[in-house]
Amino acid sequence: MLFELIAVVSAGFLGGGAALMLRRTVRTLPRWLVPVAAGSAMLIVAVSLEYSWFGRTTDDLPSGVDVALTHEVRAPWRPWTYAVPYVDRFIAVDRGSIRTHDKVPDQRLADLIVFARWQAPTRVRAVFDCATGRRADLTAGVRLAEDGTLEGATWYESGRDNPVVKSVCT
To answer: Are residues 119 and 81 in the same domain?
Structure first.
């Protein structure tokens, strides 16, 4: 976040400085050109950093970690997002962490990594029931019984067509 702030402020100085030099060279240019150029440069850099976050983040993922679900943003204070929305968070599945139990082959344990803009990634362990499309997060108080079932788990209906369920179960 700090580096992006430095990049945006630097772009403002560069845009304003370039306009100032242009204004001194061409004396007929209006004075308001300098702050408009600085603000425009800052806006362009901020928007490009927003749009490139998803690509930069997914490029840094290790092999075996696949993006399963993305969330695109449209906002009225960013009218350009209605034409081209950007991804502000996504869920990745660590394929190397997927485990099954011999007694319940339709259930899979997997590590999910939740990425969100301006937040540290969060790792969530969850069990997926591939036959019914349900998910249970492994939290305190949930334990694995001898027969392979979960005791104390809260199951959430995700559906078999959910991208995260599909990613874990295939």
So the answer is: yes
33-43 burial code (b ≥16 CB/10 A, e <16): ebeebbeebbe
What's the domain range around 47?
2-59
Global confidence as pTM:
0.83
User: What is the radius of gyration, based on Cα positions, of the chain?
Assistant: 24
pLDDT of residue 83: 95
Structure tokens that stand for 43 in this block: 């806006």
β-pairing verdict for 86-101 and 104-116: antiparallel
Do residues 72 and 55 share a domain?
no
The angle that helices 2-25 and 33-59 make with each other, rounded to 10 degrees, is: 150
State the chain's mean pLDDT as an integer: 92
> What is the three-class DSSP state of 117?
coil
Give the domain-ending residue among 11, 38, 59.
Answer: 59
Q: How many CB atoms lie within 10 A of CB 7?
A: 15
32 shares its domain with 74: no
pLDDT in tens, 47-62: 999 999 999 999 999 9
Instruction: Kindly report, residue by residue over 84-134, the tens digit of the pLDDT.
Output: 999 999 999 999 999 988 888 889 999 999 999 999 999 999 999 998 999
The C-alpha atoms of residue 17 and residue 35 are separated, in whole angstroms, by: 9
